[in-house]
Amino acid sequence: MDKRTILAIVLSLAVLFTYQIFFAKPPAPPKAVPAKEIKQATVDTAVKQQAPAQTATAQAAAPQKPALKKIVSGTEALPKDIRVETENYTAVFSTRGAALKSFQLKKYQKECTRCIGDIWPVIKNFAMGKKQPPKGNGNELIELVALQENMPYPLALTFPESQSEINAHSVYDAAVTTLDMTKDKKLNRLVFSRTFSDGIKVEKIFTFNPDNYSIVLDVTVSNLTNAPITQTPYLNWYEYIDPTQKADSYSKEGPVAYVSKSIKRKTSADVSKEETIGPDVSWGGFERKYFMAVMIPENPSLTSINMSRDDSNMVSVNLKGAKNIIPPAQSGSFKYNLFIGPKDYSMLKKQGLSLEEAVEFESVIPGLKWLSIGLLICIKFLHQFVANYGVAIILLTLLIKLLFWPLGNMSYKSMKEMQKIQPKITALREKYKDDQAKLGQETMALYKAHKVNPFGGCLPILIQIPVFIGLYNTLLYAIELRHSPFFWWIQDLSAKDPYYITPIVMGATQFIQQKMTPSMGDPMQAKIMLAMPIVFTFIFLNFPSGLVIYWLVNNIISIGQQVYINKKFAD
Fold first, then answer.
1. Is 3 inside a domain boundary?
2. Of 358, 393, 417, which residue sits at a domain end?
């Protein structure tokens, strides 16, 4: 077996290995809540309905029964909701915890309303006489707050290391019930305050910028007692993980943090009972594939982050600040920036806080992040002129092919030359079949005499692999391409072709290209190479359709280039 045969086998195994990487089994879902606990939760709910006046004190780290009422000047006050409207989102805050109850993004929907579903379940159900289950509301907006009854709300502020009665369920006062910034595009504030019975007053001020997804949080803690108090603030994000929800093998949904200039992320299933990272935490929070909610401290060098998951499938991300000693009759302040929105690389880059590191451009092979970012920039630049990301990908393919056109010509010429000397190589194999060392020497001498590079034919594939991986990451994780249509049945370039038309056509062009490639005369190698189009077709079935379009267009151009070289050599 010669070196080219071995190389062909290695490339085939590399493709299969890549398949395993791309289609690895999704992470195991979080542990389901035991039936006993579910039953107990139901009983608790019934008790709550029968006795709504009861209250309970809860620690910040555990979703216990919330204190739904507080005493103010002898009267009881129920928690209320405050709605904040901008052009980008609708946020609902609650006076319980002075925290976030809901955050919906107006420009992003859960499902692609234009997309056609996978054809195979339709065919299968039709064959079995089953009706298709009704689809969800395609206009449902992305919700970045996932809660379960009795859970504390995200952005609750707690001081678990002190003896203060402040907890995630404390009910605050707020002067307004709604903030509408859709017309008046000016900075606006939402102020929560409460004076606790232990002589501590807490004020939380959220400042909203209607033009983006950034929010500023200023916290003031006033000491109304006659003795110094020590407070270590915890700003918390709580997220309920549905154990019945199917996990996405491409999405590392869970806690994320940027610590010591390095991204740290965990899937929700991998979060232990409690884990502390830091200090030097630039930001931390909870991420999804295309969206995230992160808390940014004022002093990263004095900030650490705690990640935990309890038995009720609640993941807690707690941003722990510096210890602050507040003298009597004085105040201490803490400041945070918040970003709750899409993982738009350009938008995050402008923040200047390394938030763009959350975009997962290195999911396959580390070191190609720069290529993925470069391809994204090129695609967005071309999109400005054609207004279609699918067309932009085709234009990008043409530019890449044009850039490497001379190298491709050299590769095809090398393969033609190899075909010409193949009879001489066969003769050498027969002559030196019992002397492999001599066969290698004579073969290399033959290559040198005819100025042939035996590996020249592999150059096109080797060039395409890095671009392929870079584009794969771009299509899979760049939110700009999420739900981006091409034409006809392809309405989401980041998802697979629902009818598998483009992968099949791509496989056909791969087969044509393989048949046009000069044969090297080795039967084993020929069989392996002829099987490659079939292998590629099956691998590409579930790849993003934008990536399949890139490879398909590249094959078509390569076929044209090979026809050109063949005619030139024939003349």
1. no
2. 358
Residues forming beta bridges with residue 141, ordered by sequence position: 109
Residues 438 and 524 in one domain: yes
3-state secondary structure of 316: strand
Quick check: 103 and 89 in contact, CB under 8 A? yes
Residues 509 and 430 occupy one common structural domain: yes
Q: What is the 3-state secondary structure (H, E, C) of 402-416?
A: HHCHHHHHHHHHHHH
One-letter amino acid of 272: S
Count CB-CB contacts under 10 A for residue 399: 11
The two structure tokens encoding residue 413: 């010429």
Torsion (CA) 180, 183, 187, 192 in degrees, nearest 10? -10
Beta bridge partners of 202: 194, 221
pLDDT, tens only, 337-383: 999 999 999 999 998 899 999 998 876 566 778 888 999 999 999 99
Residues 455 and 496 in one domain: yes
Please enumerate in sequence order all residues whose Cβ is within 8 A of that of 395, keeping only pairs 6 or more positions apart, or say none: 382, 386
Q: What's the CA gap between 536 and 540, in Å, rounded?
A: 6
Residue 101: CB partners within 8 Å, gap ≥ 6? 81, 92, 93, 94, 145, 147, 153
The CA distance from 404 to 253, in Å, is 38
Instruction: Write phi, then psi, for 338 (nearest 5 degrees).
Output: -125, 145
Residue 86's pLDDT is 94
Instruction: Tell whether 221 and 323 lie within a shared domain.
Output: yes
Domain region containing 418 = 366-570
Residue 268 in 3-state DSSP? helix
Distance CA 219, CA 233 (A): 10
Pseudo-torsion of CA 103, 104, 107, 113, nearest 10°?
Answer: 150
DSSP 171: B
